[in-house]
Amino acid sequence: MSEDFNMSMRKFLKQVGVTSQQAIEEALRNAGDTSDRQFEAKVVLTIDGLDMEHVVTGSIEGQS
Asked: In sequence order, what are the residues at sequence separation of 6 or more whose Cβ sits closer than 8 angstroms to the Cβ of residue 55?
């Protein structure tokens, strides 16, 4: 893979990670005390023009 491809992919994935973390933290703050809860999370990645769907699932612990 070319260096340009690698850089564009890393930039996209960094943006996904940073903005997703910010959105999750805001949602948890707005929910109040969630310290005794666990939330199931799912991310679905699709790319226009490619026949692909990538799903990542996991859980996120609440916070007080």
From this structure: 42, 43, 44, 45
